[in-house]
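Re: that chain you flagged

S.,

Sorry for the slow reply, it's been a week of failed gels. I finally had a moment to sit down with the sequence you sent. For the record, here it is as I used it:
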Amino acid sequence: MTFLLITLAILIVLVLYHHVGYLLLLKLFSNDEVKIESNATPATTRFGILMCAYNEQEHIREKLYNLGSMLYSTEQYAIHVYLDGCTDKTYDEAMIAQSHLAKQNVVCHLHFNKINKGKSFGVNELIKLTKPNYDVLLFTDVSALLSVDVLNKIDADFKDPQVNVITGVYILDDLATKEQQQYWQYQNKVKSMESSLGAVIGVPGAMFAIRAEYAQLLDASTINDDFILSMKALNKGGKALVNNEINIVERECDEQSHDYARRVRLGAGNWQQIKMLSELFNPKLGWVSFNYISHKVLRGIMPIILVLIYGLLISLAVFSNVFLAKVACITLAVVHGVGALKQLLSIKTKWPVIDSINYIVAAYLCAFWGIIKFERGDYSEHWQRVHQTKQSNNLVIRAVKRGIDILGSAIGLIVLSPVMLMVALVIKFSSKGPVLFKQLRVGQSDDDFVALFNVLKFRSMVVDAEVKSGAVWASKDDPRITPVGRFIRKTRLDELPQLWNVLIGDMSLIGPRPERPVFYSKLEKDIPYFCQRTYGIKPGISGLAQVMNGYDETIDDARNKIGWDYAYMLSTSSARSWCYMELTIFFKTLVVIFTGKGQ
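Prediction finished late last night. Pasting the structure tokens below so you have them in one place:
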């Protein structure tokens, strides 16, 4: 019995230290006022603003406008948005915002992946793309708005070479529950005191900035990506600060049920990060190590400590004569009973002490469940690439699309054979060389392969047009184009032989434009994720990019087209949107043919 009492006492001391004692120590050693030194030197930091988005159509445009309004030289920062398999109109909204920002000389890159691979994957892709090009990487969420002077303030803070991480004050929307607001008031207070010691432990994912050289790639199974990123930036020294003049306003707040579900995940994440960040136990890191153990390690094991305390109290109350244990059990039973009754009867009256105790205990129990789920492997494949129903929808669309391609190309070859014969004769008698020419193109790509095929076209240029120049795009007034070729390119009659490519399965009637392999390395270098425009989709004779932009002449033309290609890819996530897109492209193609608006 003595052993149980000693164990219980130690556990209670740990609880009190984590929630009270640690705060007292911070107050003792920290400065009450965080001094923000104004810096008159010019703002020279190059910022890469990174953001992952999944189905954020309600907020993405406003968020990009917010980032575009920064009081900072537009030449010194650029926005990179990773669109992670969005199935709503997030990409469309982002495209609108991107166009608006371009008029303000704000560079905004949209990186699209048709398959949802999760935030850790998206963050890693953004880091790999941007780390060599910027001094500081600023991570932010779509749901959070930032003060317009945030870059100026971060730039000033990073003038100190010892600073590796910067964040701000996290402010919840007024609609957040009182418990959530109290929790973040407490967290902001703790982080402010930790900041005065140069050792902020954990940052709000809504906004934090890391010196680019210290940004490390995440493990694929990472749960709390923001915490791992910020703490890995300190594992060899350096400071993490909160700038109290930077406000991060969170617009989306979880409902109570969603908040508890989130805490299950956070509990698993807190447990995981203890295992992932063992290097922070190094006492040479000073306050970083001390604060990490006091704040996050104890927070990670606190659910287990709480369960042990409850178990020991019940055991002592039932099997011993310890009076305080019996009183504690009765008191807790009343508190939790009142909380359960309030939930059952939907009583809205606030009882501050009881509500706070129940909220804290429930949050820790959720975290305990998160630990159990983590240890049994529920988070080993935390991010699913796509939902099974989405795969099924996509397979149905592919099957229908292939059926339309076979029927359409067969009918097209028969009905248009007189036109094709006439074009062939005119080409034959107007210039030397073959009527048709073949050119290697890149077809559909998947995880395991990339298809290559020879596209068939009516010859519109002189023979050996690229012997001297090599592989180059055709220009508007290209001298290599024959007079007949100019006409058939305008009316797109040169594309008719591709009906055979469609019939044999190399292409589709409608899809992204098939590009030449010789241009791929440069295009992929200049336009990130360019190759994914044909992921799971066959290139088409016509397509949204083709009817909206015409033929490519430069890298900029290809860059402009990429948005249209991704918009088409997004339409395949829904049968209704796909049907609408197919019909729209079909009628626009007819307009191009009969009005001669092709290049």
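What I noticed first: DSSP finds 19 helices and twelve strands in the chain.

Talk soon,
D.
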